[in-house]
Write a structure and sequence with these properties.
The chain has 374 residues and is α/β, with parallel strands linked by helices. It folds into two domains: 127 residues, Aspartate Aminotransferase, domain 1 (Alpha-Beta Complex); 221 residues, Type I PLP-dependent aspartate aminotransferase-like (Major domain) (Aspartate Aminotransferase, domain 2), CATH 3.40.640. It contains twelve helices and 14 strands. The strands form two sheets. The chain has a seven-stranded mixed β-sheet with strand order 1-13-14-12-11-6-5, covered by helices on one side. Strands 2-10-9-8-7-3-4 form a seven-stranded mixed β-sheet, sandwiched between helices. β13 and β14 form a beta hairpin. The longest helix is centred in the last third of the chain and has 27 residues.
C-alpha cells in the first residue's frame, strides 16, 4: 500500500493548538460544565447579546448559500467605521484574512516580520506557506510589582526594511501592550505591507488606526466580532483595507466563507447598546483584578503583573515551575487559564478577564495556592 508523502515544508510543522472543549474538561474533572470558569481563550464572558439571539432565531432560507460578499454586513461596518464599503472585507474570523494576505503577498523568498511574543497564528501560517518568519524579541523589564515587554524600535525598523509583510498586534497578545502611533507611522512609511491586528482595541484606551486607511495604500487593520461582540463561536472578522488590496483578497477567497448565521449575528451585534456597557464592565473588572493581584504579589513576590490594554492579564513568574504549578492547581479547580509550553513563555500565564464574580473566585484560589492550601 502506497503512503502519499506530504509537501516537505509541512513534514515537521507544529500544529496550532486551540483551547480544549468544555465538555472534555468537564468529563476529565468530573464536574458540570457550568462549574468551569473559562479564562484561557480571551472570549467574551457574557451571554450572547439579545439582538444576536433574536437574529439567529429568525433565520430562514438556510438551504441557500450565503451572500459571498457579505454586502449588508459590510454596509453596517462601513457606517460604524465611517468609511466606504470598498474599504471593508469580511472573513471567517480575522485569521482567514491574515491567511489570505500571506497567500496573496508573500512569495517563498520573502519574509514576514513580527515581535516576539505575539499572536501564534503568524508563526503557524508562515510555516504552512513556507515563508520565512523573522521575529524581534521584546525585552522583559521588571520592577517591584509590574513587568512589561519593551520593543527595540530601531532594531525592529531595521528588520522591517528587509521584510515583505510586517505584523503587529495592537494591543499585543499575550501582554496587552500598545505600540505608539508615531512608531506605526515609521513602519507604514516603508515599502512593506503592514498588518495591524486590532482584535482587542475595544478594550483599550487607545484609538483604532482604522481612519488611516484612506491615507495609505500599504496598511491593513484587522478587527473581529469574537471578543467585544461575543461571537467567537461564529467566526466573523473583518479587514479595514485599501481597495486595491481588498480586490485581490476577494479574487482569491473562498466564495461562501462566512455563513448566514455569522453574517446575521454580526449585523445584529453592531446594533446593540449592550456592547459598550459590557466593555466598560470588563475594563473595570480588569483594573480590580490587577489591584487584587498586586496585593497578593506584595506578600509573595513570586510573580509580576503586566498592565494590559486588552481583556486579559499576563503574569510573569519567578520560575517556570511556579507558573506550571499554579496552572495545574487552577485547572484542578475548574479554572482554565492559558499556559505556555514554548521556551520563551514558560514563566508566564495569561488570564482572561471574566465576570466579576468569577474573577473573585480566581483571586481566592490564587491566594490559597500561595498559602499552600486546597
Amino acid at each position: 500500500m502506497t503512503k502519499i508523502k506530504i509537501v516537505d515544508r509541512l513534514a515537521s510543522i507544529k500544529s496550532y493548538s486551540g483551547v480544549k472543549p468544555l465538555e472534555a474538561i468537564a468529563e476529565e474533572l468530573q464536574i458540570p460544565t457550568s462549574n468551569i470558569i473559562k479564562l484561557d481563550g480571551n472570549e467574551n464572558p457574557y451571554e450572547p447579546l439579545p439582538e444576536v439571539l433574536n437574529a439567529l432565531s429568525s433565520l430562514k432560507r438556510i438551504n441557500f448559500y450565503p451572500d459571498p460578499l457579505c454586502s449588508i454586513l459590510i454596509q453596517s461596518i462601513a457606517i460604524k467605521e465611517n468609511l466606504i464599503a470598498n474599504n471593508i472585507i469580511v472573513g471567517s474570523g480575522s485569521d482567514e484574512l491574515i491567511e489570505l494576505l500571506i497567500k496573496a503577498y508573500a512569495n517563498p523568498y520573502d519574509s514576514i516580520l513580527s515581535v516576539s511574543p505575539t499572536f501564534g497564528m503568524i508563526s503557524f501560517l508562515s510555516q504552512v506557506y513556507g515563508i520565512k518568519h523573522v521575529t524581534v524579541p521584546m525585552q522583559l523589564v521588571k520592577d517591584e510589582s509590574f513587568a512589561r515587554y519593551i520593543l527595540d524600535e530601531a532594531k525592529f525598523l531595521d528588520a522591517a526594511k528587509h521584510a515583505k509583510i510586517v505584523f503587529i498586534a495592537r494591543p499585543n497578545n499575550p501582554d496587552g501592550t500598545v505600540l505608539s502611533e508615531k512608531f506605526v507611522e515609521s513602519l507604514v512609511s516603508l515599502p512593506i505591507l503592514l498588518i495591524v491586528d486590532e482584535a482587542y482595541i475595544e478594550f483599550s484606551n487607545y484609538q483604532s488606526l482604522a481612519n488611516w486607511i484612506p491615507q495609505y495604500d500599504n496598511i491593513v487593520v484587522l478587527r473581529t466580532f469574537s471578543k467585544a461582540y461575543g461571537l467567537g463561536g461564529l467566526r466573523v472578522g473583518y479587514g479595514i483595507i485599501p481597495n486595491d488590496i481588498r480586490k485581490v483578497l476577494v479574487s482569491i477567497k473562498q466564495p461562501y466563507n462566512v455563513n448566514i448565521a455569522g453574517q446575521k449575528a454580526a449585523i445584529a451585534a453592531l446594533s446593540s447598546h449592550l456592547v459598550e456597557k459590557r466593555i466598560i464592565e470588563i475594563k473595570k473588572t480588569r483594573e480590580w483584578f490587577i489591584n487584587q493581584l498586586k496585593l497578593i504579589q506584595n506578600q509573595n513576590k513570586a510573580f509580576w503583573i503586566h498592565r494590559s490594554e486588552a481583556c486579559y492579564i499576563l503574569l510573569t513568574f519567578e520560575t517556570p515551575e511556579v507558573a506550571k504549578s499554579l496552572y495545574e492547581y487552577l485547572y484542578s479547580k475548574g479554572i482554565l487559564v492559558r499556559y505556555y509550553s514554548s521556551q520563551d513563555m514558560v514563566n508566564n500565564l495569561r488570564i482572561s478577564i471574566g465576570l466579576q464574580e468569577n474573577m473573585e473566585k480566581v483571586i481566592d484560589k490564587i491566594k490559597l495556592f500561595f498559602k499552600g492550601g486546597n
